[in-house]
Amino acid sequence: MDKPVIVGVDGSDPSLRALDWATDEAALHGLPLCVVHSQAWGWYEGYGPTFTTDRSALRVYGENVVGSAVERAGRRAAAVKAYGELVIEDPAAVLTRMSREAFAVVVGGLGAGGIAGLPLGSVSLAVAARAQSPVIVVRGDERHLRRAFGRIAVGIDEPEQARRAVEFALREAESHGAVLDAVHAWRCPAREAADHPDHRSDVERHRALAEGALAAALRPAARVEGVVEVRPQVVEGHARKALLDAALASDLLVVGAHRRKSHLGMQLGPVNHAVLHQAACPVAVVPHT
What we know:
Layout: E1 5-8, H1 13-29, E2 33-38, H2 41-45, H3 55-76, E3 82-87, H4 91-98, E4 104-108, H5 122-130, E5 135-138, H6 142-145, E6 151-155, H7 163-176, E7 179-186, H8 189-192, H9 200-217, E8 230-236, H10 239-247, E9 252-256, E10 259-262, E11 265-268, H11 270-278, E12 283-286
Parallel strand pairs: 1-2, 1-4, 2-3, 4-5, 6-7, 6-9, 7-8, 9-12
Antiparallel strand pairs: 5-12, 10-11
């Protein structure tokens, strides 16, 4: 059986937008859609059916969330085989576990019931930091959610770590008939020093290294040459700004998962955090391995 697209739902508007995105993705790739709701979601994010501690009432609520989500997916794409799973374990833990056998995990981009001051939910952030499949955090306005730009952007860091992100971005661009912008940011320390002399040779050397790194990372693009238009973009400056700028006119921003262990567990790097919290479009976080 093909690996499913898995979407986490909690009944909120952000999760319904994630459901619609996941349904379209499943339909495009001819994949099943698994709709997951955890009875623990309300306590995890700080909202939901807090009116009672009655397990039967919580189960009825969860069944309604799953049932209505599956029905919504069926109305949106009748050809998609959609099914639901109601679980009681920690939602981030279950989505992370299910990611081992998923094409992708899709989650909403707002936390605490969609309150504007909380731009990313704790479940979404935890899953993006730990999942083994790509995680798509659905955020952005209606133009981005309906893929109005016909562009996908992929952020390139180290070529040897970018392979999976590039391959995922190429597959999405090919499937959606979109242009792929490959963005690699570079900096010249000498130019940034307040009292530096005119180190033009250093600038050119750093630019050449960046162009070489981007070319190496885009070698997988050879297989879709003539099918996907790939536009390399070497940008001087901080990676965070380069990617956020690219997201403004993109339908999807793809980044590699820069993960690190801390006393709090697996954490994402600062650039990943920035794009997940601030990007104007949906963001796909793709594990390196």
